[in-house]
Amino acid sequence: MLIQRHAASIVQSALNRQAAVALIGPRQVGKTTLARMLGEQRNALYLDLEDQEDRAKLASPRLYLERFEDRLVILDEIHRMPELFQTLRGVIDAGRRKSKGVGRFLILGSASVDLLRQSGESLAGRIAYVNLTPLTALEVDAQRPGLEQLWLRGGFPNHYLTVDDAESLARRKDFIRTYLERDVPMFGPRIPAETLERLWTMLAHHQGGLLNASELGRALAISTQTVTRYIDLLVDLLLVRRLPPYHANIGKRLVKAPKVYVRDSGLLHALLNIETLDRLAGHPVIGASWEGFVLENLLAVLPWRTQPLFYRTAVGAEIDLVLERPDGERWAIEIKRGLAAKLERGFHHARQDLAPAKAFVVYSGEERYPVADGVEAIGVRELATMLASL
């Protein structure tokens, strides 16, 4: 089943204006599939740097790559040969002198910080970055079962498209094991897989909760600094999100700790051994799971660069997601699991503090309607569509 990815047009546009484009996202999120599809339209050369034969072709990389100056070159799993970045700069600059300045390289990588660090030093002004997230509500079946299947199984294509929930759960557990035993050691210092799995599972149990590294450290018998380092790695691998708190001098005591989410809801449920929607419905994590799911769906389609935040005061005024547009307009978004978009007193107090231009409560239904003066109930798909079109 071919799914049209929202990022496809963004990558196309970036290739038309920039010499190199980095498509970054977790392993198995669909980067190679998207790159090959785009490559077919541009007669691209594809090199998989996990393949020994393809790596051998780049023994003299500049000599090899300059033979294909009229073709797009796709470099998959670039972290296998980070030394290539310096060569790419020379090839790009040589091409620019021949008026071949755009659409030269499509670079695929599985870790955001690693890729940004390697490329930022040598390809500044020559590269654009595009994030490929797991599937979103705008990329799957618009019917309600499609959205609920996406929530349960998560957005990695191989997990979402399986024949049944049991097979999906098995694939997600295999994915987690592969990351722990293969990918984490590749990107970070040697970390005991068992310890990292326990930490990842603890974060799942505390989905959407405030980060308390010292408490996690005591439970795992490791230092607070080690917990922070491990979480940093999961964030860099695009598997965990740290959502910072809103900070401003508004005369309120604001929470200072970030909230932490397992980014993909399917991985969250696999870590908690939740196989079906029935099991999820009776699990204490259901509300936090829905909150994280909605959060990722909205942030995946934002057309502008912004730091998403949450707002919480020491006395309980709270908004789940605060977004600021480039023009300074502030949006407040509350997330509630259920078919009734009920708001609590803490949201209204927080809204008075922040005075947002727009306020929404994302609930499990699809109808859009006012729930209070200046606040609308809205479905996740409709709000994601609204954000993507801005």
Write a compact overview of the structure shown.
The protein is of the alpha/beta class.
The first-level CATH class of the largest domain is given as: Mainly Alpha
Classify the secondary structure makeup into a structural class. Answer: alpha/beta
Query: Please, what is the average pLDDT?
Result: 91
**Biggest β-sheet strands, sense, barrel:** 6 strands, mixed
Kindly state the percentage of residues in helix. 40-55%
CATH superfamily of the largest domain: Winged helix-like DNA-binding domain superfamily/Winged helix DNA-binding domain
Number of strands: 14
Strand order of the largest sheet: 9-10-11-12-14-13
Mass-distribution shape: globular
Whole-Å distance between the termini? Answer: 29 Å
Pick out the low-confidence regions. none
CATH topology of the largest domain: Arc Repressor Mutant, subunit A
What is the beta-strand fraction?
15-25%
- Report the C-alpha radius of gyration, rounded: 22 Å
CATH architectural designation of the largest domain: Orthogonal Bundle
Distinct helical segment count: 17
Compute the number of structural domains: 2
Q: How would you describe what is shown here?
A:
It is a single chain. This protein folds into two domains: 7-131, P-loop containing nucleotide triphosphate hydrolases (Rossmann fold, 3-Layer(aba) Sandwich); 144-388, Arc Repressor Mutant, subunit A (Orthogonal Bundle). The two termini are 29 Å apart. It is built from 17 helices and 14 strands. It has 390 residues and is α/β, with parallel strands linked by helices. It has helices at 7-15, 31-41, 52-57, 61-65, 84-97, 112-122, 144-153, 157-160, 165-187, 193-205, 213-220, 224-236, 265-271, 277-281, 286-300, 345-354, 380-388, and strands at residues 20-24, 45-48, 73-76, 105-109, 127-131, 209-210, 240-243, 259-262, 309-312, 318-324, 330-335, 358-363, 369-372, 375-379. The protein is globular, with a radius of gyration of 22 Å. The protein has a six-stranded mixed beta sheet with strand order 9-10-11-12-14-13.
